[in-house]
Design brief:
mainly beta, Beta-galactosidase, Chain A, domain 5, 7-stranded antiparallel beta sheet
Length: 267
């Protein structure tokens, strides 16, 4: 049972002319979810109709973004749905499920809701004495293939997991995993993230910079279209989905989850 939890949802879009918010309380199949609170945000920005839907369940959260282009020209979008997770221990936080995936160092999309700015996220930091299995981040645009099953997050990093541009030119290539898991060893919690529509996965940890925010450690991760922007042709729409679910072991009773989505639209 979760005794203490909080969630902050923010929706950001530039050049937004109107915004509509709808709240719904729905009953679902008891075998799946007993009750859901659904929040729908609709926004018109020029020729774009943007809808963002958040469905909250007892131990999971489903999000969907739909962007329709009503104009006569194609629109290029850089977008992301990112979440901050606070963990109990700095050395007990890791990601599982990204083995054999390629990544490169990259700053996050700029947002007023971010805890670390792009400059802070990309600031270099030397690994500590007991950072076994961790290496400093490579230079930007330098690709690395992850060959270990776990991504340890006790050191500072800011990276994007994606298919390298050269690989995309081939007729056949390996795509990113459709899901990965965030492990909080201190609270014995696991968060599972399922990806649909988005091509990139963003991941960052603050390292020693977390100390200025309090005693808890935190990471930032989520789904994105950073390296390969989404192109929405006239009359078409684009859809992105994320399912975030939580697994609790040994009746762990405390979780801190701060989730925010943001969209940056380039016309």
């Amino acid at each position: 049972m979760i005794q203490s939890s909080y969630m902050i949802l923010c929706f950001e879009i530039y050049k937004c002319e109107s915004l509509k918010i709808i709240l719904r309380l729905k009953n679902f199949d008891e075998k799946m979810f007993s009750l859901a609170l659904q929040v729908e945000l609709s926004c018109n920005s020029g020729t774009l109709d943007i809808t963002y839907v958040v469905s909250l369940y007892p131990l999971s959260m489903a999000t969907a973004v739909v962007i329709k282009n009503n104009g006569r020209k194609a629109v290029t979008l850089n977008n992301a749905i990112l979440s901050h997770f606070i963990s109990k221990k700095r050395n007990g936080t890791a990601i599982q499920g990204l083995q054999c995936s390629s990544y490169c160092s990259h700053p996050p999309l700029s947002s007023p809701f971010a805890i670390l700015s792009p400059a802070e996220a990309m600031k270099t930091e030397s690994p500590g004495w007991f950072s076994f299995g961790s290496e400093p981040e490579d230079k930007r645009d330098s690709w690395t293939l992850q060959d270990v099953p776990f991504t340890t997050l006790n050191n500072k990093l800011s990276r994007v997991y994606a298919v390298p541009p050269k690989e995309r030119l081939k007729g056949f290539y390996n795509t990113l995993p459709s899901k990965f898991e965030i492990i909080d060893q201190g609270r014995e919690l696991v968060f599972r993230v399922v990806r649909m529509g988005f091509e990139d996965i963003y991941l960052s940890s603050p390292g020693s910079l977390s100390e200025k925010y309090g005693k808890y450690y935190f990471i930032c991760t989520g789904l994105a279209s950073i390296l390969e922007p989404v192109i929405v042709k006239p009359g078409e729409d684009w859809r992105g989905h994320r399912l975030l679910s939580m697994i609790i072991y040994n009746n762990i009773s405390q979780i801190f989850l701060n989730s925010y989505p943001f969209q940056i639209i380039h016309l």
